Amino acid sequence: MTLTLLSLAIFFCVATATAAPRHLKLPTFIPRGGGLLDSDSISPDSSDPRGGSLLDSDPSPDPNDPRVDETIKLVRSAADLLNDKGTAAYPTLRTSLEYRHGETYVFIYNLNCTILFNAASPQKEGHNTHNLTDSNGYKFHDALVSAADSEEGEKWVSYFWPKPEEEESSKKWTFAKKVVIEGEEGVVMSGFYE
């Protein structure tokens, strides 16, 4: 009898939480030994330490934000340049105001999460970021590289990362697009903070 009531209570919580609007404060069942969590304790940006989001979040930033189109155009233009010129495009990506202005810059990983190019931080080039996480434990580097495996070959990824010269993390959106540089597949990216 107790087991049946518990099973029924869990079913009700799961069914209600998945069907209810996000603004309702319902308990959420996380089936990994975590039990019931208050919906105030997690947000759509909360992440599972194993990687991935605990709740479904928006797959892309606010389309009304002008930075969204600017970032997509920038990354697609950089991808075209890289596909055409290969590593000979790096000096242009590092110094041209089209690709590097203010907090805007492009960066490139290979499919093993090794940083091939970073216009803002050249000292990071050559470092492998596989399995490294943001402040919430989300393996965002791996998620960025997975853009190459997506059907479209491009996607938005959100994660939490400190702004330059800040210690506290802020939400960042990065647009990642598959690229082929001199026969090697990689991902070219750029993003912005909310």
TrEMBL record:
Query: Where does it localize?
Result: Cell membrane
Region (Disordered): which ranges? 37-68
Q: InterPro entries given for it? A: sCache_2
Biased segments, Low complexity type: 37-58
Q: Which domain of life is it from?
A: Eukaryota
Q: Could you say which residues form the signal peptide?
A: 1-19
Membrane topology term = Multi-pass membrane protein
Annotated GO CC locations? plasma membrane
Tagged with keyword Glycoprotein: no
Boundaries of every Single Cache domain copy: 96-193
Recite the UniProt keywords alphabetically: Cell membrane, Membrane, Signal, Transmembrane, Transmembrane helix
The protein's name: Single Cache domain-containing protein
What is the native source organism of this protein?
Triparma laevis f. longispina
